[in-house]
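Homework help board

Subject: predicted structure for assignment chain

Our instructor gave us this sequence and asked us to write out the predicted structure in token form, then describe one feature. I got the tokens but I'm not sure how to describe them. Can anyone check?
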Amino acid sequence: MKKKWWHDKVAYQIYPKSFLDTDGDGIGDLRGIISKLDYLKELGIDIIWLSPIYKSPFVDQGYDISDYYKIAEEFGTMEEFDELLAEAKKREMYIVMDLVVNHCSDQHEWFRKALADPEGEYADYFYFIKGKDGKAPSNYRSYFGGSAWEPVPGTDKYYLHMFAKEQPDLNWENPRLRREIYKMINWWLEKGLAGFRIDAIINIKKDLDFPSFEPDGPDGLASCVKMVEEVQGVGELLEDMKHETFEKYDAFTVAEVFNMKDDELREFIGEDGHFSTMFDFSAHELTYGENRWESRPIDFKEWRETIFESQKETEGIGFKANIIENHDEPRGASRFLPEYAQNEAGKKMLATTSILLRGIPFIYQGQEIGMTNCRRKDISEYDDISTIDQYNEAINAGCTVEEALECCYKNSRDNARTPMQWSAGKNAGFSAGTPWLALNPNYTKINVEEQEKREDSVLSYYKKLTALRKSPEYRETFTYGKCVPKYEDEEEIFAYCRVPEDGGHQILVAANFGKEPHTLKLDSSGAEILLTNTADQADMKKEIQKKQELTLPSCGTAVLLL
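My token output:
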């Protein structure tokens, strides 16, 4: 594999609105991010991904962009962004921004001009399609619920929005629109941006016939995903974008890709793929219920097999980006750990199994201190368009208020968007004003300030994990080595070996997700303990030397050089 600058890096996602507020308006800002660069450096972070900071009405929390060339006033100024780039560079860190180009905001100049002249050139920047028999052109349901078509005022046309109606889809079949997008991408890369996380990009290819499908719900609509899955040719658009932009700057790109066809992995992230990498959502998809508001509990064996299958399919092709959580998912500690493991030991265990996999580790803000889901008493306490829609769907389907709120507790995107918990002080040290979203009450117990004082904290352990992954002795193995599953016949053990390309010493990563202690037979008595989340390392070392065994307590994990 041709080695790239980003292969051995550790990434961190910042949700700017909730990271750190320095001006007291209750909204996180660029100045707050700049002030925490040293914190992130100490954590072992190389690449920082910022969720959208562009000018926006914030209907979908910034994923509805009204001006791609401006910073939202809520976050600061372009001068502060330039300062962020400069300060990151001093620390040998890279800044990656969100690229949202499947759709824009209905407040964007292009869309306003399109509405003003539905027959003009800007209408062709979007999908302005004539209705059928006085109804929408097809029966697509948007990702956020309801029809994906909205009437164009004063005409018999509708515009397509696969997300909220305030997020009209951009027409990628229009060469002029594509040139505008490429110009914008290159403008940011010229500034010194290292690359992009690319939002919902699989959706840019549309079937221009917009066929209706068999309804998949009582509303008579069919998910717009159906059209995305069946249409061909997205690769041509992605290659065009790569050649005109990213390739020229050796930019790092990580794509949000769902509904990719089975044989397309190499095209997307291979040696000459569309993107550097893409997020691995395979484990998250296991939790999806039959309805949008539902989720199903994690089955450990299925979860373990799914992760190993994903690792295997990527082998010899490229790298995936490994995540436990992000801004669109509930907190991983609340989702992937059984109740008895939702403690500091369990959070360290989950981190170990994820961060030492083959691929690019992405840590989401607050994950490094073990932040959890946040229970709310009323739907009015949520500020997420998708959560509110899912709640209403649940109520309309016959759920009680309590049942619908329980679904929100398990599934809401707002679980990951509560303000970062810096201290046990006022507003968790996030803001001197009133936070835009209410804090998780457990900030008095789970916060950075308290954990920085403890060698045995989750935060301290994350620092050890990233340091181990990037250590001179083991960097090559953790970056390029194979991931080989181990102890698969043990029901509650998650274990794998990282096998170096040169055939040197293997590294065993083993974790006990069970309630009871578990003993594993080792192939060697000379194994060296590189990292463990248990306190009795001396006893563990003796057991390995005398019995060639490794005993892990409940939620225990160990990394051994074999």
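Reply (TA_rk): Your tokens look well-formed. For the description, you could write something like this. Residues 481-561 form a domain with the Immunoglobulin-like fold (CATH 2.60.40.1180). That's the kind of observation they're looking for.
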